[in-house]
């Protein structure tokens, strides 16, 4: 007997059980999938910075580095994105053969099954480099190594399934895809109507217990060319052939696409990207039970399996592509701004250009920092579900902003399509990343904080499990133990938040990080404020907070900023506190702090319980939102990082695909080197008020060799500024008969006059 439990806790327990919203099986399985990691530290309100800084950096083995510098470079040299899009509408056959032969589809498959056995970081680095050469190729390589049959088999497959299928997936004999999205169920996968009825049937001339499947899927990447389909469906057992339960739940199985009843649909064209994507159907397709991934014991466990796999995949594929896109935008836009002149000066000197350029540079710095930190967790065997959601959402959103900024600075150069346009296709591809693997609107408003508040909170999940316990006495005992720990934690968080907010974080804990130490203090301050406000919102709103999507989104934004800023600080430390990079770090911190303060203010302005909102404002934001964002000095210094050849520029944009093929990117790199190398010569000419280099040679301002260097630089810049044009009959079949657009319209006019 316990006086506290039976007298004080019991009424609270009864009340909480009454207001606790019902949780569906899919919600519970999603919550139980994956792991918590640094997000749990942030939720405590008192993150352990020493723990973060001790996390080993993600690194490549010598074998992985050799693959990146060898086969990946070779693949990049084979790729021509314009021809892939304009002429072939697919990867050419030699590329398909190469990626199969060199086991690009088997990067994550262990060596014992014929794969490469690469780490998550190596997988990320490969996708990142290919992305800077071809989106179509990157997606093609990415998908078999992300959510799909391979990863599911590795985690959940039976020994027989792994031995049968993994070698075939590793060497490309089978091309995989995964069918999850149904027309009736986009983001709401639980509402899919695809079914698998357990029954007896004939398979390969023998009668077995199996599943008769009917499905309709769409948006399936690699679907049109796949030979092995991983399929998600709802399993039913009406005749109780495997147990007493009729509705078994979401299940995943392997479907060889040659089976009778499988229908491969025609191709989709997602945002004019030509990676293989399309719908498929199954009509009365029969498979034996041993085609269920994990076998009969895994019937109905598909959703948890998918969420576990997604916790890893979402942290690698799209963040890698997004980080690559931001780095590529930083390198190309910095180079273009440096060489492009308007009104007699480089456009990089205009403050209106510096501002978006600084945003691109800092975004590239932060996204790659977060990518590396997330890969470090994955390398350690952690599957951070909440962090993967943060990464998918914010990496793709920030890539969108970076690419938009790059397009604005390039102007017409990036608008006119053709083989010399090195940005246009990346711009077209952005909506794909925003939409797939969980639409960003849904992820921001429901998942990041909705899942994080339960999984990453130190006590909430344990309390919910105690409240849901069918044994009331056992649940009460567990709740009593956890609830009072939660109360004590909340009081500690209140004191921390009050002290750190009123002192502007001056005494908040921080490691010795040189110039970055104050940033750690501010994150400690904001972590405490976030944890306190989250606790109060959960206390006052309970399950209704799930329906307050705008509040949930704001909390999610704060949690996301705390993680992304943590990653940037760790990168700063890991790279040896490079002074040249500090401006990028400052920009990230100032922008992130501004977002956090604004979201806190918005939460307090919209929290339904106005008394609690007023109390929280007094505690965590007594002087209002005060951070204005990066200063003009920081913007200028940040933009300057990519305007000259330097170690800082290389650190910011490492391991991009560099192919010397006279394409748009290669031309830009060449012109940038020539222009920056002749900068001092050009300055002497400007000081002497001489514009023509031949006149400058005649007057002795520069030498003949220097003049020829300037001429070469000018010619290189001219080639970069050029845009593509096409013969009318190339763009439209209308003009192919005459070959002359003017003649065509003249004849058209004559025909009209005659009629």
TrEMBL record:
Residues 454-726 form the Acyl-CoA dehydrogenase C-terminal bacterial-type domain. It is an enzyme of class 1 (oxidoreductase). Pfam families: ACDH_C, Acyl-CoA_dh_1, Acyl-CoA_dh_M, Acyl-CoA_dh_N. Residues 300-447 form the Acyl-CoA dehydrogenase/oxidase C-terminal domain. The keyword Oxidoreductase applies. SUPFAM superfamilies: Acyl-CoA dehydrogenase C-terminal domain-like, Acyl-CoA dehydrogenase NM domain-like. Its EC number is 1.3.8.7, 1.3.8.8. Its cofactor is FAD. Pathway: Lipid metabolism; fatty acid beta-oxidation. The keyword Flavoprotein applies. Keywords: FAD, Flavoprotein, Oxidoreductase. Residues 177-268 form the Acyl-CoA oxidase/dehydrogenase middle domain. Residues 65-172 form the Acyl-CoA dehydrogenase/oxidase N-terminal domain. Belongs to the acyl-CoA dehydrogenase family. This is Acyl-coenzyme A dehydrogenase. It comes from Bradyrhizobium symbiodeficiens.
């Amino acid at each position: 007997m316990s006086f506290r439990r039976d007298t004080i806790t019991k009424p609270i327990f009864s009340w909480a059980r009454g207001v606790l919203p019902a949780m569906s099986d899919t919600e519970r399985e999603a919550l139980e999938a994956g792991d918590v990691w640094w997000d749990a530290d942030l939720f405590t309100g008192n993150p352990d910075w020493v723990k973060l800084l001790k996390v080993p950096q993600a690194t490549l083995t010598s074998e992985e580095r050799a693959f990146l510098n060898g086969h990946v470079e070779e693949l990049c040299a084979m790729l021509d994105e314009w021809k892939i899009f304009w002429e072939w509408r697919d990867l050419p056959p030699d590329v398909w053969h190469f990626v199969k032969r060199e086991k690009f589809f088997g990067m994550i498959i262990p060596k014992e099954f014929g794969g490469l056995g690469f780490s998550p970081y190596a997988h990320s680095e490969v996708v990142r480099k290919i992305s800077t050469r071809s989106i179509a190729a990157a997606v093609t390589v990415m998908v078999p190594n992300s959510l799909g049959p391979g990863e599911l088999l590795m985690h959940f497959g039976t020994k027989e399934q792994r031995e049968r299928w993994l070698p075939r997936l590793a060497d490309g004999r089978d091309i995989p895809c995964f069918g999850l999205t149904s027309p009736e169920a986009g983001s709401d996968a639980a509402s899919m109507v695809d079914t698998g009825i357990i029954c007896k049937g004939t398979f390969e001339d023998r009668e077995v217990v199996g599943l008769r499947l009917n499905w309709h899927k769409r948006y399936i990447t690699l679907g049109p060319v796949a030979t092995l389909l991983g399929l998600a469906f709802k399993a039913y057992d009406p005749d109780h052939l495997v147990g007493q339960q009729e509705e078994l739940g979401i299940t995943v199985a392997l479907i060889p696409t040659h089976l009778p009843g499988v229908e491969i649909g025609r191709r989709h064209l997602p945002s004019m990207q030509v990676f293989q994507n399309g719908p498929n159907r199954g009509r009365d397709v029969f498979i034996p039970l041993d085609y269920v991934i994990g076998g009969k014991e895994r019937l109905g466990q598909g959703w948890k399996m998918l969420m576990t796999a997604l916790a890893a995949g979402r942290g690698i594929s799209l963040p890698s592509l997004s980080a690559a896109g931001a780095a590529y935008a930083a390198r190309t836009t910095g180079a273009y701004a440096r060489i492009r002149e308007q009104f007699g000066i480089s456009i990089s000197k205009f403050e209106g250009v510096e501002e978006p350029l600084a945003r691109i540079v800092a975004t590239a710095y932060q996204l790659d920092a977060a990518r590396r930190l997330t890969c470090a967790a994955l390398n350690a065997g952690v599957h951070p579900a909440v962090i993967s959601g943060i990464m998918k959402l914010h990496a793709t959103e920030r890539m969108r902003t970076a690419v938009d900024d790059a397009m604005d600075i390039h102007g017409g150069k990036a608008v006119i399509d053709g083989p010399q346009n090195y940005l246009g296709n990346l711009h077209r591809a952005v909506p794909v990343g925003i939409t797939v693997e969980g639409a960003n609107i849904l992820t921001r408003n429901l998942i990041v904080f909705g899942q994080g508040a339960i999984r990453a909170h130190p006590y909430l999940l344990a309390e919910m499990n105690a409240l849901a316990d069918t044994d009331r006495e056992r649940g009460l005992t567990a709740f009593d133990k956890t609830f009072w720990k939660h109360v004590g934690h909340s009081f500690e968080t209140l004191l921390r938040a009050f002290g750190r907010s009123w002192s502007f974080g001056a005494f908040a804990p921080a490691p010795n990080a040189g110039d970055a130490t104050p940033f750690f203090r501010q994150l400690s301050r904001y972590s405490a404020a976030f944890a306190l406000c989250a606790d109060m919102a959960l206390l006052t709103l309970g399950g209704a907070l799930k329906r307050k999507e705008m509040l949930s989104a704001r909390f999610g934004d704060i949690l996301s900023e705390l993680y992304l800023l943590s990653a940037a600080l760790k990168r700063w430390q890991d790279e040896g506190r490079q002074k040249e990079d500090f401006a990028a770090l400052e920009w990230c911190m100032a922008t992130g702090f501004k977002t956090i303060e604004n979201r806190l203010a918005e939460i307090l302005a919209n929290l339904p319980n106005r008394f609690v909102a007023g109390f929280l404002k007094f505690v965590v934001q007594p002087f209002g939102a005060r951070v204005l964002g990066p200063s003009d000095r920081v913007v200028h210094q940040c933009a300057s990082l990519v305007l000259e050849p330097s170690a800082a520029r290389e650190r910011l944009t490492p391991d991009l695909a560099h192919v010397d093929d006279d394409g748009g990117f290669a031309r830009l790199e060449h012109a940038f080197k020539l222009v920056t190398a002749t900068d001092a010569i050009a300055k002497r000419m400007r000081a002497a008020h001489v514009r023509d280099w031949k006149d400058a040679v005649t007057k002795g301002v520069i030498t003949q060799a220097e003049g020829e260097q300037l001429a070469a630089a000018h010619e290189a810049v001219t080639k970069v500024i050029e845009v593509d044009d096409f013969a009318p009959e190339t763009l439209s079949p209308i003009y192919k008969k005459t070959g002359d657009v003017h003649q065509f319209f003249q004849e058209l006019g004559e025909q009209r006059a005659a009629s």
